[in-house]
Amino acid sequence: MLRRAVVLGEPDADGLLELELLEGPLAGRRLAAVCYPELGKVPREGEEILANTLGPEMGLGTGGLAVAVPTGGLGKVPENRDHFVKLPYTPLQHPASPPGESAGSLRGVPVAVLPLHSHLAPACCAAGALRPGCRVAFVWQEGGALPVGLSVLVRKLREQGLLSVVVSAGNCFGGDVEAPNVYAALLAAAAAADLVLAGIGPGVVGTGSPYGHGGMAAAAALNAACALGGEPVFAPRFSLADPRPRHRGLSHHTRSVLEAALAPCRVALPEGVPQEELRGLPGRHRYVPVPFGAAGLEGRFGLTFESMGRGYEKDPVFFDAAAAAVALALGEVDV
Fold first, then answer.
1. Helix (H, G, I), strand (E, B), or coil: what is residue 156?
2. Contact, 18 vs 12, CB < 8 A?
3. What is the share, in percent, of the chain residues with pLDDT greater than 90?
4. Are strands 306-307 and 286-290 parallel, antiparallel or unpaired?
5. More confident call, 70 vs 105
6. What is the strand order of the sheet 111-113 is part of?
7. Burial 75-87 (b: 16+ CB within 10 A, else e)
8. What is the rounded distance in angstroms from the CA atom of residue 330 to the CA atom of residue 313?
9. What is the mean pLDDT of the chain?
10. pLDDT by residue (tens digit) across 89-109?
11. What contacts 209, CB < 8 A, 6 or more positions away?
12. From CA 110, how far away is CA 210, in angstroms rounded?
């Protein structure tokens, strides 16, 4: 959905800007938009550009931004960086530097795998509360938004000193470190941090089928971490407030992930998850009740937890799962 639009005002430091659409069903509307400097020239006020308006026209939630189409190159010929490019064989392919220093394995490295981007804030806050000064790295996987620059949450966590490094894996781009796959990303993260978190960007691909969703990135991270000698902890997606039956209680996303995670993993169960929710789950995993949650962490670190418009007070167990996974991964709770 490429539409002509005019840029209203100068983009901010994060590439966020406002457009007025000149054509299409939303013609005349002002829309929030984002551009990515990694892909081309940043548009300026008054410039007429093309914008992808698929998100706003479909009424998407997280993806409801317009995206400015790059209008020109960066003014220099990119160097050959070990034949490593992001978005290969598309008009937006661009070079990336492979990870430099990497760990040899994940043995002894705390790793927690998160189901959604909205779990990142409580996970980072839990690390900061349990181990002040803990260096946290986040492996950003495919399954939601590809550009790291889209995440307002990452910027806030950096500002609070709760997130040190972002490693963008696969075709995700814009991290402090670029990695060609989740294996390389986990090892690069382990070399730079005391705790490794893995998950997807904002939004999540969803087709309604058991395995056709972005949440399957968690299974890839769990399998990769185990293959690299780690003992990852998984934070289940659990909600008592989601109106959709497939995500009420233990989400069908989590059930699919646990089926696809081949090696035995630990699953952190926050308080409030009934034992009957565990029926039918693979017996190879260890389901560990964890007496630690995210209560009080928002006020302590000046952040707000939110997912699908619901905050902590409306669905505490959803956010508690991420905090519990971090506590278990760090070995900071008696279980």
1. helix
2. no
3. 74
4. unpaired
5. 105
6. 177-179, 165-169, 136-141, 195-200, 111-113, 233-234, 266-270, 286-290
7. eeeeeeeeeebbb
8. 26
9. 92
10. 998 888 888 898 899 999 999
11. none
12. 29
pLDDT for 173 beyond 60 = yes
Residue 180 CB coordination number (10 Å): 17
Find, among 190, 175, 261, 279, the residue nearest to 230 by Cα.
190
Torsion sign, CA atoms 303, 113, 201, 62: negative
- Give the integer Cα–Cα distance in Å for 195 and 282: 26
State the alpha helices, DSSP H only, in the chain.
54-58, 120-130, 152-159, 182-192, 217-227, 252-260, 297-301, 316-330
Look at the block and give the residue holding tokens 């939004």.
Answer: 203
Q: For position 78, what pLDDT does the model report?
A: 61
Residue-wise pLDDT tens digits, 225-253: 999 999 999 999 999 878 888 888 899 99
Nearest to 169 by CA among 188, 193, 190: 188
Residue 260 carries which side chain, given as an amino acid letter?
A
